[in-house]
Fold this protein.
Amino acid sequence: MKSINLLGSTGSIGVQTLDVARTHGYKIEALTAHSSVEVLEKQIREFKPRYAALVDEAAAADLKARVADLPVKVLSGLEGVSFCAAEGEGNITLNSVVGMAGLKPTVDAINAGKTIALANKETLVAGGKLVTDAAKKNSVDILPVDSEHSAIFQCLLGKPRNSALKRIILTASGGPFFGKTKEELKTVTLADALKHPSWSMGQKITIDSATMFNKGLELIEAVWLFDVDPDMIDIVVHRESIVHSLIEYDDNSVIAQLGHPDMRLPIQFAITYPDRFESPEKQLDLWEVGNLSFYKPDYETFPCMDICRNAIKKGGLYPAAVNCANEEANLLFRQGKISFCDIPVLIERAAEFTSNNDNYSLQDVYDTDALMREKVRQLAGF
Ligand code: NDP
Ligand code: MG
């Protein structure tokens, strides 16, 4: 029986994961969040995990008092999250934390031999080599939750003998600003950027989708998950979000995975793999869908895709640098402190301060994070 340590349970992916667990009766062994006490309390009462953790110390103390009538052990801090990831009794750790705060818990869970179901793409972008090396060493599977990577993973399951993968084609919805000019982007607001056309997600990834930095993160995520050269990955804008991604073999045959935009399907497959079970997702009716459209991305108006491609080509700490600079710039934009078009400029300028190091440690990634956040704030005038 599959059982799950769920990190980031109060967020968009976390809540949908619990929906999947409720449908199929999976046991939840651990639940974690940052500071959402009330939601976590409700989840604890329903799923009765053995452990729970909140990063925020005061919130954790509040939670402990609220659930004193239950046998759950409440922990605090990032160490509490790491404990749940590694020592929680689930055989799968599903990481849906937002941002590179998810990196250490992922590494700890891998070292404890847990199968990883990974939504937290920043983990692979900031610490790709550390995470994949640890997974190899511990013979641990990293199963993608991100819909594009789940699609690629599913397409590759039918890989014929003696065949070579020639290309990965990542689909992108294009976000709310598809078709806009550079000039028009100068006046967009936070409310405009939060209106995603096809997916309902947490705020950070919704802004990343508007800047297309999300697609850049996904390109780097694909390099690590599927061990491919960055130039083997193409991006195609597909507004309907029905084709979740495609692969191409050496004979030019292209294989795709299709479905409605509903994250419960990739979440479920990461948990049930190598099995498939019925899912609550609506059946795909191609007559109803009608047309599928595909466009070339506008790399000039949305430079974040190339920023990420260049960072993974440079290697070492560059992907971590652009990821961390983006985390800070994304936050400043959400706080109303910078404009939408400042985001890529700040990321590129901050990343120039990265000192490269191919044999980086976890501490080097954290140092890069601190440096990038400081540089972005300085460059933005704060
Ligand atoms: P949300 O913002 O909705 O949820 C984030 C979760 O992480 C919450 O439980 C939050 O707790 C917790 N959290 C926030 N900060 C920290 C921290 N510093 N340390 C530990 N936990 C923290 O995000 P999403 O669910 O949208 O996204 C989660 C991840 O999944 C991201 O990496 C995203 O890119 C990826 N993803 C999301 C998709 C989606 O459809 N939403 C699709 C594909 C990938 P609290 O509530 O207390 O703040
Ligand atoms: Mg995605």
Summary: Residues 8-14, 33-36, 55, 81, 96-98, 101, 119-122, 146, 199, 201-202, 204-205, 263 surround NDP (ligand 1) (CB under 6 Å). The chain has a mean pLDDT of 97.
